[in-house]
Amino acid sequence: MKPEIQDAINKQINAELFSSYLYLSMSSYFESKDLPGMASWMRVQAQEEVGHAMKFFDFVNERRGRVILAGIGTPKTDWASPLEAFEDAFKHECGISARIDSLVDIANEHKDHATATFLQWFVTEQVEEEASVDAIAAKLRMFGEHSMGLVMLDRELAGRTASASGADAGESE
Fold it and tell me: Would residue 170 count as lying in a domain?
């Protein structure tokens, strides 16, 4: 594995672990607002992000590279509303998508076909991630200040469960 690719993937591992921290922080925020469904949804999201980090971790090791872990930043801890939290999650996912696109560019630049192929799963995953979070934010915008809509959405989001094989097989919710 070329050093430039290894370094970029190591940074992506850190970004995925930060994502997990961010979603755990959002989960805590939703718990404090008595929105257990949204809290649960974010907790599942946090677990999924750890699975993504581990996919990268395993890939580097399979390619005889070296994973170098760095410190994880402190995430935001408070939001003005559930909508703001989901809008922040959407912006964050767009940033992760840009990072994945950059990794694809680096792999292509170095003619590393194995890495480029590996990254295609993440390209597809990010489309799903953005769409999922954006759909929730759209519902929150539609409900406005109507608490009944918020309660109904909270109940709906409580139904999300973690995939047992998500980290291994690359499945997502």
Answer: no
